[in-house]
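Researcher: Structure prediction, please.
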Amino acid sequence: MYKTFLPRILIAALFLFQFSFAHSQDLTYVIPEEVNVSSERLEYLSNTFEEYVNQEKLPGAVIMLLKDGKVFYHESFGKKNIAANKDMEGDDIFRIASQTKAIVSAGIMILQEEGKLLIHDAVGKYIPEYNKTTVAEASTDGQYNIVDAKRKITIRDLLTHTAGIGYGYGVAKDLWEKAGIQGWYFADRKEPILETVKRMASLPMDAHPGEKFVYGYNTDILGAVIEVVSGQSLDEFLSEKILHPLGMKDSHFYLPKSKAHRLTTVYSLTDNGLIESPNPGQMNGQGMYVEGPRMSYSGGAGLLSTAHDYAVFLQMMLNGGSYNHQRILSRKSVELMTVDHLDGIEYHSRKGSGFGLGFSVVKDLGRFGKPASVGEFTWGGAYHSTYWADPQENMVVVYFTQVRPARGLDDHDKLRTLVYQALK
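Model: Predicted structure follows.
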């Protein structure tokens, strides 16, 4: 990584030299001052994340910041593999887990724009098993009763996480466990995602459709809908409609073995510092993203990506659906995706926020209580990555690391504060 004792202007000049060939087809690198950001104040950001590494709170990380569509900061910190003493590089590949959800949600909107579905359609129109679903309601004796859902689940319910579908740990978790469907990890499964999703339909959900925000398998089901409607695998569809047009050449469900050396290592933050997670380790380890059966494409948490690729996707959204002369979505679809759809449904995850079609959205800056802008859309991943796009500042922030669990780590809030304090 670049050393913080170098003047920031010189660092930015080095960015221009190092990355101009690698990404000349799209992203432009500039010195921070060109987009009204202080190089001097960005030192606080660099110093803080170096300190996290030195204190063994983070193994390594990559931060990429864009303003007005231009990269003004792209730094790597620490190691991608501590035991092997391999430095983190700016183009290293990360497991992005739930950051997959936004891309798949965009895929659904593409199908709506093509006239192939409506987001108000019942899911059962495309996957008949969802025409009749049930809900587990807790009873006073500590057990539960299974009742018919009050109405059919719609695609919009899935996009907003109001379908009542969790990750198999709700009231009827015993039945989900018996069915072998719990947690967000799918890379080890030897069946297509559509088959898993069909089996989900027979299990009791956590709430009635449209009544609660329940975070869970919603976007995995959306991925299966995409497969049915498009006639392609989710991998093929996303590659054709989003990844390839945007030049996201390092975004994959399963990593080509030629790129395996760029996949960063997962660590757990413990009382004794960082410990390398088991291999493959399933949900809490390295996973089977290189050596797995490559059969299940998880729309909820399956993708691998780089800071560059994900920044391009977010810039496309910030641009109103187009990037580098490629129109991915209409600007009206982007508008619809990035406003609150909860309509009074309680949203526990983030105060001052609502939830759109694939993104959390900041609504009230005072209640949010952190540096941001109204209209910001954001989310993150289980391996402790995060991102946001700020339409008012025309800014994209991508932060990738691989720490699970990351108990007590305050890097996300520090990142947010240190990015915004550098704006002029």
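Model: Residues 39-54 form the longest helix (16 residues).
Researcher: Thanks, that helps.
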